Amino acid sequence: xxxxxxxxxxxxxxxxxxxxxxxxxxxxxxxxxxxxxxxxxxxxxxxxxxxxxxxxxxxxxxxxxxxxxxxxxxxxxxxxxxxxxxxxxxxxxxxxxxxxxxxxxxxxxxxxxxxxxxxxxxxxxxxxxxxxxxxxxxxxxxxxxxxxxxxxxxxxxxxxxxxxxxxxxxxxxxxxxxxxx
Length: 181
What we know:
The protein is mainly alpha-helical and about 180 residues long. The chain has helices at about 30-35, 55-70, 75-95, 110-115, 130-150, 175-180; strands at about 15, 25, 35, 50. The termini are far apart.
């Protein structure tokens, strides 16, 4: 702020470009400013707590966020904000556990994706939702590719495949022995 003049705030709102929703927009400014611990959840969900703002990281991701929402309906805007809130909360827990602060895109190392999936002593909520984990990875990849070019070798680990075996459908050892005799 110079001579009492407030700096012009850049728009942190994404207008919906889907033809069926011309008047819809979503404000993403909380990624810059943070969001409170005690906010009421909208809709059927429950509020999972706040997180601090990360203005540089939000700036780094902003064009990837806007591009991701092109031609998508309002629920995609809501889901992406939910996804980024989840990631911001993880980053707060990560830092509270003593790891280096994540302020910008270059602070995010590939191993962070693995740490999100395997919380250290319950310090943060696990990123066990495949859609959330993969969406964050996709946004980070796009943002890094724009900044560092196609030769950037950084990558976000993929979400591990689930074990599709239903253990309740497997016979016990005694059932197997009985079937063989």
